[in-house]
Amino acid sequence: MKLITAIIRSYQLDQVRESLIAAGITRITVSRVSGHGAQKREEVYRGKKVIPSLIPKMRVEIAVNDEFVDTTVNAIIEGAKSVSEVEGEIGDGKIFITPLEECIRIRTGEKGSNAI
Ligand SMILES: Nc1ncnc2c1ncn2[C@@H]1O[C@H](COP(=O)(O)OP(=O)(O)OP(=O)(O)O)[C@@H](O)[C@H]1O
Ligand SMILES: [Mg+2]
């Protein structure tokens, strides 16, 4: 099992959700977060270095069995690109994949791939 965490542009959320649902991925957790990625240039204001502003983003979390990782990642990428389907833009976001040790459905006590 893997936990897929994507940080995306807030206004791309519906498009990402549509893309995931179309790919058969129907379980999701979403939260409002803020952050910044790589700064391409150092910002200086009146001779002082200025730290980058935090930009509101959406964090999308999806826990999947290993065989669904590629489908999920591809659907997120497809939905999260802000301009062209081919190229994408700076700030379109990032996807992190982490090993997921366990998953338990509270209602039934099922564990692992049956519970996910
Ligand atoms: N290494 C990281 N660790 C934690 N959060 C990150 C990291 N990289 C990106 N993020 C989060 O993802 C959001 C989107 O990142 P962003 O797409 O700007 O990444 P980037 O590396 O700067 O790539 P790009 O050059 O396409 O902008 C950031 O605002 C931040 O919240
Ligand atoms: Mg960036």
Describe the structure.
One of its GO terms (cellular component) is cytosol. A hairpin with a 2-residue loop joins strand 3 and strand 4. This protein has helices spanning 13-22, 69-80, and strands at 2-9, 29-35, 44-45, 48-49, 55-64, 93-99. With 116 residues, the chain is α+β, with helices and mostly antiparallel strands. The strands form 2 sheets. Strands 2-5-1-6 form a 4-stranded antiparallel sheet, with helices on one face. Strands 3-4 form a two-stranded antiparallel sheet. It has a single domain, classed as Alpha-Beta Plaits (2-Layer Sandwich), CATH 3.30.70. The chain is elongated, with a radius of gyration of 17 Å. Residues 7, 35-38, 55, 57, 90-94 line the site of adenosine-5'-triphosphate (ATP). The site of adenosine-5'-triphosphate has 12 residues, from strand 5 and strand 6.
